[in-house]
Amino acid sequence: MRTVLIKLFVLLAMGMLAGGCHPRITLLGDTAADPLKEYVLEGRRAGLGSGPGSGKVLVIPIRGFIGLGAHQGLLRSRPGVVQEVTAMLRKARKDTSVKAVVLAIDSPGGAVADTDMLYRELMDFKAASGAKIVAQAMTVTASGGYYLALSADDIAATPASVVGSVGTVFISPKVAGLMGKIGVEAEVTKSGALKDMGSPFRPSTEEERRLAQEMIDQMNAMFQGLLARTRTLDAARLAEVARAGVYTGQGALDMGLVDRLGYLPDALARARELAGLPKDAAVVVYRRSKYHDDTYYNSASGEWGGDSPRMLDLGLDNLGLGMRAGFYFLWPPAMAGLGQ
Hints:
Layout: H1 2-19, E1 37-42, E2 56-63, E3 71-72, E4 77-78, H2 81-93, E5 98-107, E6 109-111, H3 112-129, E7 132-142, H4 144-149, E8 154-157, E9 162-164, E10 169-171, H5 176-182, H6 206-230, H7 235-241, E11 246-248, H8 249-255, E12 260-261, H9 264-275, E13 282-287, E14 326-330
């Protein structure tokens, strides 16, 4: 019986690795269908207009793995980071009273293409709205999380934040060894030698590893080039950062990755200053559900979003079984236990 259960588990893992999907059963509806609404958290409501001296600061949380796909448990789902942040940016673009945005980033990164797409959405928003952006590093702002921070006019970190991991990784989960131990095989018929490159069912060949490294180098050049264009780092610090290490907030400040040390209230004050707003200008968030005693530390936009418990979640994301083979701006150690 135990052998049968193990085989079933491996077959489930193989299916997810091949398709990059998660099991989903929808029983309680989906609050992602609710529209985004604005809620004022602090500041004077009288300043919400578009006249001189008026305006507001929008707080946008960027939390967890940066990707296009929705995060799905057995009884709930919520939009992926790219979808939700883009929806907020497009809503803000229609509101001329949004003069500044604070990105509260708590993310180890994500897929290269998805992260770059969201960065472009942020830059398009800045160009269209003229709003200032301030990035605040929360617990972790690493790799793709830091890539998004580079869209900001000002970057801050708390002394205890983890910042950096400026680099690229190719992840190709493998189950071939486990399959061999329990007598499960996968037969693949392909049109070319490289057609199943990154397959979880066999070790990579030397040619595949070489090609993966070439693609990593090209994608990493995007990251390093963006860093060089947006931050004032000398050659020695650029070379050190290129090793893809992580730093505390103070270390990130010393390396020139952030502009200052501070906390979220300081980021709000800085955003008001950059946008020329009064010190008591309103701070707003976009939510799909109303929260009582709400604050800007709340990263959820809907009833089942953010830090809320995952009802009957199998925890497969945290085992790494739901991650597709691919290229990532990601600090992998931070993925363990990440409540996506």
